[in-house]
Amino acid sequence: MLSSSAIIADESRPNVLLVCVDDLRPELRCFGAEYIHSPNIDRLASQGRRFARHYVQSPTCGASRYALLTGTYGGSSNNALFERAKSLLENPGRISPSMPAWFRQNGYTTVSVGKVSHHPGGRGGDRWDKSSVLELPDSWDRHLLTPGPWQDPRGWMHGLANGEIRNDETREDGTISMHVMQSTEGPDSIYPDGVSIDEALRQMDLVTAEKEKPFFLAVGILRPHLPFGAPAKYLQHYADTEMPPTAHPQKPKGKTTWHKSGEFYKYDRGGRDPNTDAEYAIEVRKHYAACVSYADAQVGKLMDRLRTTGADKNTIVVLWGDHGWHLGEHAIWGKHALFEESLHSPLIISYPEIAQGGEPTNAMVETLDIFPTLCELTGLPTPDFVDGVSLKPILDDPKSAGHPAFSYFRSAKTIRTETHRLIRHKNGHVELYDHGSAAKETENIASENSLLVETLSNQLDARLD
Predict the structure, then answer these.
(1) Closest Cα to residue 114, out of 22, 241, 210?
(2) What is the pLDDT of residues 177-213, one digit of tens each?
(3) Rounded to whole angstroms, how far apart are CA atoms 112 and 182?
(4) Is the pLDDT assigned to residue 435 strictly greater than 70?
(5) Strand ranges across the sheet with 405-409
(6) 328 with 252: CB under 8 angstroms?
């Protein structure tokens, strides 16, 4: 392992602005979804590199963010970072530094605002506000969450307009009292991201004013995470929109990683089910789209402030979705599956000197690649413990080749190649899908392709075992 001792701080090194967006599908105008109103993310894509085939390591927040923030494979639960923190406390010499820790040790001011690790603000305890229980110890100079009227990070995480907090006590039908979607008149600040983004802007002013050190500023945007609540002006974008049809909306046959969408169905839906009520499904999808537009507006505030400070001339911007989200595909309303919709998320990297800015790439990449990429772009040494590879060749030339993507969740793991997806369950059951066919991930062809199954299984074992 490379030494973690600090190098001499160099204020000429590029800054890093890392924007993490929760539950964001690659369903943006710049990714081909013409009906989505996402002008700010689209503008970022027009200046940088849009990675059309970026895959996360796990289809759940905590495990996916573990991969981003450590550059390594880890557990598949939302507690992955807390488990790492416990190991770090017990055996500090055996745990490699996190990405922000690496930048901090190498002369950067590191600040996190909002949901960057799994818990907004990065703390544990019943209300996620216990300062003695950190998700990422020794990583941040400041790790912040301004809860506003939602009282604490846990309330903020599941909040609706004007301080409404989710009550997890279940009714007789198994639901909770909070509505699954909401659209309320008012400014951005009546929903959680509007309050948090103000703190992020304040922190950007602070770190850009500190000329002695470059900064690594990570900002976590909550929406479009459930519940789907956003100011009414964002839903207006979709009032007259004809939504495109949902691909393969049927529940898959045979054994898969399909699940009952428990996170979605626990909310109050007024007794309606999007899998059997087409009108309601459209309503849910429009509220999700409104949350995407709300998140896009927060990205716009960050980019505007970066330009106002002048730091945009020396800042690498990374916009990353922590995983995808099913909107009825495979009859799932959520993540937590190893299908394409759960694992495919947006990634955009932009910086002033990028070659062929605005030109997208179809090279396949993974979340693990972000850590070594940022090391190379900033001139920091790349640690030997990271599991990804630098994307600098693709940033220099969008036609450069990518590599297969590997993911895992609970008792299954998967490899995605240019043409196929293999999913292997712990009990030995295998799914194989041909992405060159019209059926894609609706027809398991494993039984008639034993040689390909063996080849991909060997790659899976070599990478993840």
Answers:
(1) 22
(2) 999 999 999 999 999 999 999 999 999 999 999 989 9
(3) 28
(4) yes
(5) 405-409, 412-416, 420-425, 430-434
(6) no
Give the angle subtended at the CA of 22 by the CAs of 21 and 25, to the nearest 5°.
85
Strand partners, 412: 409, 425
Q: pLDDT-based confidence at 12, cuts 50/70/90?
A: confident
The per-residue pLDDT for range 40-53, each reduced to its tens digit, is 999 999 999 999 99
DSSP 213-273: S-EEEEEEE-TTSSSEEEEHHHHGGGTT--PPPPSS-SPPSSS-S----HHHHTSB-TT--
User: DSSP class of residue 189?
Assistant: G
- 3-state helix, strand, coil split of the chain in percent (to 5) is 35, 20, 45
Q: Quick one: pLDDT at residue 86?
A: 95
Q: Could you list the active site residues?
A: 61, 118
Q: Check residue 6 and give its pLDDT.
A: 44
Predicted TM-score (pTM) of this structure: 0.97
Beta strand 405-409 with 412-416: parallel, antiparallel or unpaired?
antiparallel
pLDDT at 206: 97
Closest CA to 310 of 196, 212, 200, 211: 211
Rg from Cα positions in the chain: 21
**C-alpha distance across the termini of the chain, in Å:** 20
- Averaged pLDDT score across all residues of the chain: 96
Which tokens is 64 given? 């996916």
- How far apart, in whole angstroms, are the C-alpha atoms of residue 153 and residue 125? 10
Q: What are 143's two structure tokens? A: 């790790």
Q: Could you tell me if 423 and 254 are in contact, meaning their C-beta atoms sit under 8 angstroms apart? A: no
Computed from CA positions of residues 371, 377, 379, 384, in that sequence, does the dihedral angle turn out positive or negative?
positive
Residue 419 burial (C-beta neighbours within 10 Å; 0-12, 13-18, 19+) = exposed
Each residue of 291-326: b (16+ CB within 10 Å) or e? bbbbbbbbbbbbbebbeebebbebbbbbbbbbbbbb
Token code pair at residue 37: 């109103």
